[in-house]
Specification:
Layout (H helix, E strand, L loop, with lengths): L1 H5 L6 H16 L2 H17 L10 H22 L37 H5 L2 H13 L2 H12 L4 H8 L3 H28 L1
Length: about 190
């Protein structure tokens, strides 16, 4: 750490810890396990600080370590099979109105052109809006989405961890992606076009 401070790098560890903890609580749904995972990730990052090359942001590097700690927790839970109940009921699909009878986009509901995807993804503001959209999802839906898409947990493992069926998982992922699409369309892409 002293090497990094001498180079002018000083991470805001309190802010980073809060970001890590919010993410871990969303995923693990248990504050104690989340705090343990964050503490282990931060200790591991400090122990391996010499490996940090500055090719990514420090927070991104620590988040990668935290992702591994969360996946380890999921694996440990899978070994100790429990009967936790998944707390989200499946309601009528709110997105049916976007499609016609043959499951194609209705003319006025089609996504507008999003421009150059690579340029958009590289913009920090996009990820700020994405986080707002993700936060607006129901917690259980956001959890399934983050487990599958961010942590890259296999669908079978998501189903075991959350005690849901593959069909239910697929429906939840579909709804999460649709809600994120609508939110990003309204809060990012339409704003950029205007």
């Amino acid at each position: 750490m002293s090497e990094l401070k001498s180079s002018g790098f000083q991470p805001d560890l309190a802010r980073l810890r809060n970001m890590l903890l919010r993410f871990a609580i969303l995923q693990l749904r248990d504050r104690t396990e989340a705090e343990d995972a964050v503490q282990e990730a931060m200790l591991a990052s400090m122990a391996r600080i010499g490996e940090f090359r500055g090719q990514a942001q420090f927070s991104t590097w620590v988040f990668a370590i935290l992702k591994n700690k969360i996946v380890d927790t999921f694996r440990a839970r899978a070994r100790n099979v429990s009967t936790r109940v998944y707390d989200e009921e499946i309601s009528a699909d709110a997105f049916d109105a976007l499609f016609n009878e043959s499951d194609h986009w209705k003319k006025h509901e089609r996504p507008s052109a999003w421009g150059d995807p690579e340029a958009t993804l590289s913009q920090t503001q996009f990820w700020t809006v994405f986080e707002v959209c993700l936060t607006s999802l129901p917690p259980a839906t956001a959890r399934v989405f983050m487990m599958r898409e961010f942590l890259d947990v296999a669908v079978d493992d998501v189903c075991v961890e959350l005690a849901i069926t593959k069909t239910n998982c697929g429906v939840i992922l579909h709804r999460a992606k649709m809600a994120l699409r609508v939110c990003l369309q309204n809060r990012w892409f339409d704003e950029k076009g205007a």
